[in-house]
Amino acid sequence: MFKCEDCHETTSLYNSCGDRHCPVCSGSKRVDFNEKAAKLIIDGVVYYQVVMTLPGELSELALSNRELLGGLLPKSAWSSLDRSIRTEQGYEAAAISVLHTWNQQLMHHWHVHLLVPGAGPSVEGDRWVAATPPTGSRNGHGFYLVDADTLRSRFRKTLLRRLAQARAAGKLKLTGQHAYLQDDDNWTAFVNGLASKTWVAYIQPPPTTESKAHHVVNYLTRYLTGGPISDHRIVSANRQSVTFLAREGKQVGGQRTQVPITISTKEFTQRWSEHIQPDYLTKVRYFGGWSNSKVGQYLQRCHDLSSATTSETAAEPDPPDADRQQVDLVCESCGSDRMVLQSESSKPSWRELLGYGSSASPPWYADIRDESDRIFWDGLMGEGFNAWYLETLIESAKEAEAQPPQPIQLHLPGFSPPEPYLLNSF
Asked: What's the CA gap between 55 and 42, in Å, rounded?
């Protein structure tokens, strides 16, 4: 807690949880991501955002195969996009991909965003190639990357083929509601159903014709980093329910009005928690010319062939805004930066926050947990069992605290002291 030397009001600066899904703690990560991406940008090149999405059936299957689908999705998306660019445009592509598993309502919606340059070194020879629409194209806005229908088809075929290979190798977990897919006939019918659908592969050009390369990076940085929901979308929250803003409808890539959605606090917590990715799952990947093994040589070729200014000149950082993490602490009351530390406390552990009987446990969480336990144990052992069990535990704990620690005798083989050595038990 800090105290302002000007108005004497206090301001709390809470501990950072440091989690990569937290919307509050990801400010520095946004800056790091922006700086790294900005170094890849060449002025004068048009950059596109490409979004590829798994069908709902595979988003559900991904819940029990997070690592597998978390790798297959971006790799299949990149493979399809790279092939389309090489075939249709004839230049070596590059991409940054970011994995998302949610939609605005926090439901399962596995998709990947890719930042892709619309130009690059030619596949054959040493010349600079920019993406152009094919002859006879009705494209009128001046932006074109590849044919979206062909890209969708390639993405679908590539991912389904790799998914089948994973199943044949025993890497795909088919349990619970998906256990029926262990049968070959059921699997064939499942895949045929997915193959008959039109998958989403949306190509988004820069926001405006005046947009510079670093504007696109800044836009994507604010959008792609952080967790499933930002705190400014939460309208209200209490022990019973949470109301947040989310878009409705299924219009791909369009602008949709956000509406308030209210669900129970338990349901909100469950939805959010299902998008917590394990540490071993890579969220951000670099492909093609931007991969770690190729980026140096690739950028040098791009600069030489395009005769453009360097990325350091092109990607000047924007001034701090509401989306950036502010380092300096200011008073919430008067705005002064003359803040003096008054007190501080260490960050509690998750065991302390969520443990039974912990005074630090959030009341809404403790109430939901205790009620769930009561329903489960009373249903299993009979009405009133849970209350009796908790009371027994409390009484046993009180009795144990009232008893003084009993000494124990230390026995050492081959050594017989005149009197036994006693140690107090812990």
From this structure: 34
Asked if 268 and 106 touch (Cβ cutoff 8 Å), the reply is yes
- Residue 178 dihedral angles phi and psi, to the nearest 5°: -105, 10
- Walk across the sheet containing 241-247 and list its strands: 234-237, 241-247, 258-264
Rounded Cα distance between 245 and 284, Å, is 26
Q: How far is CA 101 from the centre of its chain?
A: 7
Taking the CA atoms of residue 350, residue 354, residue 355 and residue 360 in that order, the dihedral angle to the nearest 10 degrees is 90
Q: How far apart, in Å, do the first and last CA atoms of the chain sit?
A: 36
pLDDT bucket at 425, cuts 50 / 70 / 90? very low
Listed by start position, the domains of the chain span: 27-228+275-314, 230-264, 350-424
- Joined tokens for residue 331: 């008073």
Which one-letter amino acid corresponds to residue 321? D
Burial class (CB in 10 A: 0-12, 13-18, 19+), 24: middle
pTM: 0.70
Identity (one letter) of the amino acid at 308?
A: A
By residue count, the chain amounts to 426
Asked if residue 50 lies in contact with residue 201, where contact means CB atoms within 8 angstroms, the answer is yes
> What number is the average pLDDT over the span 358-377?
82
H or E element at residue 236: strand 234-237
